[in-house]
Amino acid sequence: MDKAQLESIVARYRQNLLDGVVPFWLEHSVDREHGGYLHHLDRDGSVFDDRKMMWMQGRGVWTFSALYERVEKRDEWLEAARVGAEFLRGRCRDRDGNLYFLVARDGTPLMAPYNWASEAFAALGWAAYSRVSGESWAADEARNTLDVFMRRRENPKGKWNKAMPGSPKLVASGVPMILLNLVGELGGVIESERLELIAAECIETIGLITGPDGTMYEFTNPDGSRPAGPEGRHVNPGHAIEMSWFMLEEVRRRAGSGKSEAADDELVALALKVLKRNLEIGWDEEHGGIYYFLDIEGRPHPALEWNMKLWWPHTEAVYALMLAAEMTGKQWCDEWFERVDAYTWLNFPDMEREGAWFGYLDRRGERTHEMKGGRFKGFFHVPRALMLVAESAERRAK
Amino acid sequence: MDKAQLESIVARYRQNLLDGVVPFWLEHSVDREHGGYLHHLDRDGSVFDDRKMMWMQGRGVWTFSALYERVEKRDEWLEAARVGAEFLRGRCRDRDGNLYFLVARDGTPLMAPYNWASEAFAALGWAAYSRVSGESWAADEARNTLDVFMRRRENPKGKWNKAMPGSPKLVASGVPMILLNLVGELGGVIESERLELIAAECIETIGLITGPDGTMYEFTNPDGSRPAGPEGRHVNPGHAIEMSWFMLEEVRRRAGSGKSEAADDELVALALKVLKRNLEIGWDEEHGGIYYFLDIEGRPHPALEWNMKLWWPHTEAVYALMLAAEMTGKQWCDEWFERVDAYTWLNFPDMEREGAWFGYLDRRGERTHEMKGGRFKGFFHVPRALMLVAESAERRAK
Asked: Does A137 reside within a domain?
């Protein structure tokens, strides 16, 4: 890609971020009355469900903090981050510090804390908020919540785990994935030695769940072999692609903190192999776009929605490809970027209405939902990718 | 419909049942080695997951028993029913008699008994099997399992319930629905007085969850009002349509047992209102077929697969319409039957391979899965509808 192409990408991504996505969420999501973020938002921003998923609270805090930290020091962004950070600090936790999965608009707990990712995203949000606000309580919350997460990860669902003792114990890709993302955010919040230990553990697990050809499996046996049945064949290309840029960011983190290792080249090579392979198997050659799920052997996938095209694998792919191109200069990264970028911009931003993004398409690319935010779509993947792609392209253009 | 039309329907439904559907499941599903039924069956009948869902065990026992009882006294059908009935009797239960949700091929429990429908379908299967086999232990099992179901229904998910004490208690349509189906099968297994009490309770609840226009809601408040948010707007047209023929069968049961009531006409009228209204709102005027789920106000539905077309709402609709036409002679029932029947036969039976049915289409009617059986598709809705439609059409033709 030449300088003009890169500059055009910077302009396009930043314009959509600042004129489309951020204003939409700032106006419709930030709950000035009860705190936190409303995130079940229809096409026009109207709220079709006023309950609040905990995931979306932590993620929103992260995104508003990151905008303030990385894009511009706008008071309204810092203030919007505070609205979420303080809501999370409130009544959203049980006595053990576990975050409820779902709360009412005013924070009344509605669904038990059975999902460990709630803690991970809250820690992510508080860590970023503590950096931009300088408020030390937020760093304490991030640290404490990380502890809750680490305590829970052996049996993440706790008493809500429905697997019987006789069922196979599987390694899930979600834990190292979320932890590696956290590693990049927790510098300055936890001791450096602990951070390095967590990072090393993540990299080891990633090696375990990745096949020799780069396919990343959602579930493996503890020895890395694949379990029988659909779990062992289940691939989530978006997860694998997102993981690939977490790995690349880990190499950048080490470089930034003077901790570069001989193993860094290997990690970059692994990240690129994972990225390329999972794009290749995840891409729909007929209709374009990245499948949501795959059965690696082409057997029937248990999820009815497996062949849908969701926004987030595409946002993760454009950033993974831009960063990989920046770090390695590989031609195929730019070629794939152009392909994924074209599909993404054709289908997801709502260009009839300022540009906030739709999220759900069927295999052909027709929208199944008009909503801009939902149970699992908040203010996170889209602004993050827009921000990070623009940053990386800007560095390359210089 | 004239006699020739009805006879042609009888021939077509029975031929597909006897030459397509039953041979496929008899060959590929009945597990001669470990007992029970394999039901994750790919297009060619090969097993892509050898675990066994408890739902599909009870349902399979019911279907093989019903074939023997209603279609023909074939020993291989009775024997296939026994293979499931005895598997269920084995190690599939915990100490309290709750049935595990999922077991390994050999019956080893894999997933905890968090789902009350397992007991309901087992009771259905054992009751039918006890009638055709004359084995009294099966009637005892049906009775005991009904007791487990009745004990559990106040808090069906038990300790796996993730709703917090502060969340609204909702009335779910699933309980009266499954119970009303059971009422039709448990005559002779439980005392008649108890049966009538259960039936009366079901009818009362159905009144509660049905709007004045006939829309049947999946969830209502205990006073029949609709809860705020997506639960209160959630409609499952297939459930409502299936419920409508359970109501009609209840009227037939009362007539058959000499218990006809003045209220029967009202129940028939309610069943027809529910049937018509939920077909009208559930039908996709653009591409044909019945939507899987709806938001009654047209807001975004939380389920990604809401606009897919699944086999079972269509099988339930053809039978509900045929039976309604038989019982009331209404012209619109025949007109709707022809419409639903045409869509169903065009899309679901695999006519390139003897006629066992596919299950999953996207909104346009393109198959998303090639499988004939899956986690929630066993040997139940298709053969049941084929059998019952043929019976009803045959009575009408005479």
From this structure: yes
The reply to whether B101 touches chain A by the CB within 8 Å rule is yes
What's B141's domain CATH number?
A: 1.50.10.10
ipTM of the complex as predicted:
0.94
Please, are residues B82 and B74 in contact by the beta-carbon 8 Å criterion?
no
Q: Give the pLDDT mean for A220-249.
A: 96
The string of pLDDT tens digits covering residues B249-274 is: 999 999 988 877 788 999 999 999 99
Structure tokens at A260: 């570069």
* Mean of pLDDT values over B360-387: 98
Nearest CB partner across the interface for B229, out of A51, A301, A363: A51
pLDDT over threshold 90, residue B165: no
How many structural domains does chain A have?
A: 1
Neighboring chain A residues of B371 at a CB cutoff of 8 Å: 300
Residue type, B358: F
CB < 8 Å from A in window 285-324 of B: 299-302, 304-308
Whether A162 is in a domain gets the answer no
Residue B381, in any domain of the structure? yes
Query: What pLDDT digit, counting tens, does each position of A287-330 carry?
Result: 999 999 999 999 999 999 999 999 999 999 999 999 999 999 99
Number of A–B residue contacts, CB under 8 Å: 104
Strand partners, A294: A235
Burial class from Cβ neighbours inside 10 Å (0-12, 13-18, 19+) for residue B169 reads: exposed
Q: Residue B218 sits in which domain range?
A: 3-157+168-397
B85 domain residue, yes or no:
yes
